[in-house]
Amino acid sequence: MGKTFARPEALAETITHYCPGCTHGVAHRLVAEVIDELGIRGRTVGIAPVGCAVLCYNYFTFDFQESAHGRAPAMATGIKRVRPDLIVFTYQGDGDLASIGMGEIVHAANRGEKFTTIFINNAVYGMTGGQMAPTTMPDQRTTTSPFGRKAAEVGMPIRVAEMLATLQTPAYISRQSVIKPKYITKARKAIQKAFTYQMENRCFSLVELVSTCPTNWGMTPVDAVKWAEEKMLPYYPLGEFKTPA
Amino acid sequence: MGKVLMKGNEAIGEAAIRAGCLNYFAYPITPQSEVAEYLSRRMPEVGGVFLQGESEVAVSYMIFGAAACGARVFTTSSSPGISLMGEGISYIAAAQCPAVFVNIMRGGPGLGGILPSQADYLQATKGGGHGDYKLLVMAPASVQEAVEMVMQAFPLSEKYRNPVMVLGDGLIGQMMEPVEFPEHLRTEPSNKDEWATNGMDTRRSNQRNLVKTLYLVPEELNAHNLMLKAKYEQMEREEVRFDTYNLDGDYQVLLVSYGTMSRVCRTAIDNLKAQGLEVGMVRPQHVFPFPHKAVYEAAARESCRSVLCVEMCMGQMLEDVERSVAGRRPTSWYGKCGGEVPTPEEVMQAVKSLSLKS
Ligand SMILES: Cc1ncc(C[n+]2csc(CCOP(=O)(O)OP(=O)(O)O)c2C)c(N)n1
Ligand code: SF4
Q1: pLDDT tens digits for A96-142?
Q2: Domains and CATH numbers, chain B
Q3: For the whole model, what pTM was predicted?
Q4: Which residue has a Cα nearest atom 5 of ligand 2?
């Protein structure tokens, strides 16, 4: 019997800089598996965000560009417009995509740019030390909302998948999670669909992944999974919000 | 092809196509929106890419993404838009990607006005975005020169793997003049397989390419900056371009001026000659690298009593002129920046008011 669980070719053989229990690694692995499965490693270009995943190109084995904070969708637009034959994806956190880069993602999605976005929703700014994000939960304490996020002052968390699904052009918008195996299987399927639609030359696809940041949530990895499941999933329901006609 | 009468902005768009650049991203802003309008019709005809981005911020990153995967690409904007592109330009320079930015300058600061200006000189030549980077900055004085500079900008940006800026005042964009598109300035995009993220399949080696600007190890960032610095020094050695006017005789005043303003200065120089006052001029065609040596030597000529920097702003190139003259001659400034181009009479007046005693 051969190996049943091997490292995907698209994933580098190295140790990551992510914290113990961080789900960025799971999301990376799913992307790498899908790229292998679709046989597109040689024509894929990834775009790294500014956030904890800024160095994600160290863990993938294909061409990569590193963006400025929030601008990955504009870079992906630039690539895809001049090289429609390439498979392009952005990998972005919630500060990157839903705060500073909200304009870029909305317009890229609305133009129906033919790339894929993997959107990591961990309810905080991880890299800079756990500040409040647009996705931070009501009453969640962060380093810049020490008394908890107050909707009266800063509004409610933005549901990116639902919001983008109001646009007519995108092909595929899905929210999944990477916090437990039962969710991971579905997340993998969603990522596979997103890339497949891109290969079929369909418009924009995005998979939001409800994730954990145990370090900045001040929890053990196990407690973080529990918190995400109890607090985040009811507010961020999983499922497909838009599928190709 | 012979001469055609064209508006500067349209000629700039056509020049890029003639240079072999078929990719354009932009956001509308007066006084250069005609470039986008022209290319929105023209790019489809030549099988090129035209996209109106959602903002100049986004456009600068569309340029970055396209340039980083090896395509020839350019954008045009005007002052406030270029400010927004500052972040992207810094990243593109840091990542060593070739790209061309055209700035058809309007009055500032803030919204300023929509009339011609040269008030982005310091932004273009000394930074604008963050960090230690430089742009090669070309400054045309006519529509014909704008065409030639745009065509030359692409191979130059590829030679240095650095963004090149064509810095024109609003008149260059708005003026109609006869132009010719020199066939010999059409160039093929260079082979970028060694570094461009154009997909591993396109390359013979199995090496993946990475375009990045983050260097967390201090020694690596320092080395990266030293390498960039070496490129800028090479530009200073190899890319100084300037033009002179009436520098043969015994002039008493040296003017330093560029762009449309330098054309007014020529008329002023002719008129002053007729009145018996000899005035010479150095006109930088590239404002970075600046022709320091030429300006110094012209200022140091024995007959020269005074140096006057004439520009449509409050004295920005003056800083470079003062550096060049290095105290050898009194150096002063004349200019306006509300959008009115100073008249030859006003320049003549400014020259006459200089103290020319030895
Ligand atoms: C223009 C700009 N502003 C601010 C920053 C600082 N910064 C770096 S990462 C980051 C937030 C990242 O958070 P997120 O996108 O949620 O990703 P995570 O780290 O949680 O994966 C910020 C604000 C920056 N690099 N650039
Ligand atoms: S700070 Fe949070 S998001 Fe960043 S690596 Fe650590 S756990 Fe992951």
Answers
A1: 999 999 999 999 999 999 999 999 999 999 999 999 999 999 999 99
A2: 4-238 (3.40.50.970), 242-357 (3.40.50.920)
A3: 0.97
A4: A18
